[in-house]
């Protein structure tokens, strides 16, 4: 369009590859994780011979919009990455703002009502291209991606938390869950865990394996008081630990207050303890929860885009927005981190099951986040040691991931592993995440209810 060539490499190929990996029978408000999770991988190649990678949630909507974006990305210069991203953004969301893709089936419409619907947001499409372009630009310039985000590198290692789940008994299903992937944590992560003691054992296994000091229990499964007892069990084993509990907004405000009030010594903060009810928005109930309990709040449900963030801030509803770079974009997530640092909030990140490309993306976004951050969510411990798409995934040691010094994202694609994960996808996947399917083995006829624990008190 009449502008001079930047002299930076040009993208010559873009591939969009759906991939799948194995998971445990992890319980949450929406049911039980299936034996497989899916993701979408983007590979860009430039005429300097570099490969750039991006990873985002799976799903037909994200996949097809990414495929449609190929002609907008191929032929672009990596030095003009912002222009390319604007083109993609405009194609994806002509009106601006957070966008959901077209619902293509009744099953997907059902999923859209559930907390993990943020994975279907079209910002994920932008992020997949953004991460891969930044990876290429970093390789061209010889700098890590975190140095290209916001004000650049702010830290050399990123604290991560042990994301603990109640685990269903896979032997009560005929689904192909793995029985074990080794010893210690690699054995433990496949066995049933439903009691406070079993949760504390899980926590201990993650400490042995990864050295965590921060923990999060996924709630919305048992009654609130029992989940708080599991938090107390973790604290009893690790008194210095920072622990949080996330029922995905399942508790009515009165119950959230009853469960948490007086437990500030157990909870470092409360993640989505309550949500919308009786005509009040989740931001309003979270603000009331904070005033009633004095406990700090985090969310990946009620401040998930800039407009929600503005309302949330006016109400003082949220102290810790969990700005997952997958649905905030990497640049957007860091922009929110800068705002948190300036406005007295704490930045953190939400996650979902993911491969090692996403682990690198989380690490670089968090490395560029200024000020105090909270240990970020990652599901990686449920996949680590077995799943990988890169030659050498970043490692969690001492509860932290060292920020790579290598150019770009600092990870190299392993094409054999990518091929195998794609073959697995073709064999097992294709439909939207539906946690009700596996849950029905534990509770026949089970259906999702946003205000009812998934296991406690169910038939
Ligand atoms: O993996 O079951 C899960 C989580 O419940 C996930 O879907 C949530 O999006 O991790 C998330 C959260 O913090 O709400
Ligand atoms: Mg959450």
Which secondary-structure class do the elements indicate?
A: alpha/beta
Q: Into which percent range does the helicity of residues fall?
A: 25-40%
End-to-end separation: 64 Å
Task: Give the bound compounds.
Answer: D-glucarate, magnesium ion
Task: Round the Cα radius of gyration to an integer and report it.
Answer: 21 Å
Average per-residue pLDDT, rounded, comes to 94
Number of strands: 14
User: Approximately what portion of the residues adopt beta-strand conformation?
Assistant: 5-15%
Query: Which runs of at least 5 residues are low in confidence (pLDDT < 50)?
Result: none
Task: Report the principal-axis shape.
Answer: globular
Q: Count of DSSP helices?
A: 15
- Going across the major beta sheet, what is the strand order? 7-8-9-10-11-12
Major β-sheet annotation = 6 strands, parallel
SSE run: EEEEEHHHHEEHHEHEHEHEHEHHHEEHH
Keywords: Lyase, Magnesium, Metal-binding
Protein name: Glucarate dehydratase
Organism: Pseudoduganella rivuli
Binding site for Mg(2+): 246, 277, 300
